[in-house]
Amino acid sequence: MSTPSGTGPAKIRLRHLQDAKERGRPFAMLTAYDQFSARVFEEAGIEVLLVGDSVGTTVLGHESTTATTHQDMLTFTGAVARSVSRPLIVADLAFGSYQVSVEEAVRHGVDLIRAGAEMVKLEGGSAIAPQVRALVAAGIPVMGHLGFTPQSVNSLSGHRVQGRDTHAADRLAEEALALQEAGASAVVLELIPAHVAERITEVLHVPTIGIGAGPACDGQVLVWQDMAGLSGFHGRFVKTFADLRSDLRRAAEAYRGEVETRAYPTAEHSFE
Ligand code: KIV
Predict the structure, then answer these.
(1) Whether pTM exceeds 0.90
(2) Residue 247 belongs to what H/E stretch?
(3) Structural domains present in the chain
(4) β-strands 48-51, 88-92 pairing
(5) 21 contacts: CB under 8 Å, gap ≥ 6
(6) What is residue 4's predicted lDDT score, i.e. its pLDDT?
(7) Which parts of the chain are beta strand (E)?
(8) What is the C-alpha to C-alpha distance for residues 42 and 135, in angstroms, rounded to an integer?
């Protein structure tokens, strides 16, 4: 399969992200959790699909990603992996599935790869460097995640921009370097000032992927329901590129109206 424009590799691999950084070519990552959205994003040329633990809040109705389980991640990773062939598939290690020990991190990482992921993402810096090292040694590519890390929402006292003061910014840069040193092949930077993300992007050899981290990152990621105007979330860092919520409501209202007036189904939709 080729890209919508007919150019580019038939399959996105880790090296293509590294190549994009080296060429200064920004790339787009979107979350995906099911076959139809994943296929649409593949058709749109999205190079990286993240089966995020945000599936817990966007699909499963939880308050926080801390409720998303390893089994949830396996189910939704499998759904996406069976549906697309071109994008690089990254899956989150669920809260509690990698913090306890290096062994658990590797075991759960292996499960995600078996479910169809090609890279796993975990949150945190130097504290999880041993896990990153062990995953990489097991042949599992790792994406780090720094700044606002949703699985730590309770210790971070809510959704807050991180790294605002000089000390915190320096610390973020050190943590990013620690992840790279441990073998991470990319790092998500969430909710940090643009100038801090720019500095980290300059010092890292591996790509940074921003969400609420300004324009200097090597790639960008958004939760698809936010990007497409389905969730109704309008955080400052989100741009909505469609109004799916209104479109879907209109479609459901039209359907209800036609059922209630017997305008649908007609003979055309019926069998002899
Ligand atoms: O789970 C998720 O959607 C994420 C993104 C916010 C990067 O981790």
Answers:
(1) yes
(2) helix 244-260
(3) 14-241 (3.20.20.60), 244-272 (no CATH)
(4) parallel
(5) 206, 207, 218
(6) 54
(7) 27-31, 48-51, 88-92, 119-121, 142-147, 186-190, 208-211, 219-222
(8) 27
Q: Which candidate in 190, 202, 260, 268 is catalytic?
A: 190
Half-sphere exposure of 54 (CA within 13 A, CB side): 20
213 lines ligand 1 (CB under 6 A): no
Q: Which atom of ligand 1 is nearest to the CA of 188?
A: 7
Which residues are bridge partners to 109 per DSSP?
Answer: none
Please state, for a pLDDT cut of 70, what percent of the chain lies above it.
Answer: 98
- Is there an atom of ligand 1 within 6 Å of 221 CB? yes
Is 92's C-beta closer than 6 angstroms to any atom of ligand 1?
yes
Known catalytic membership, residue 202: no
Residue 158's pLDDT is what?
87
pLDDT at 71: 98
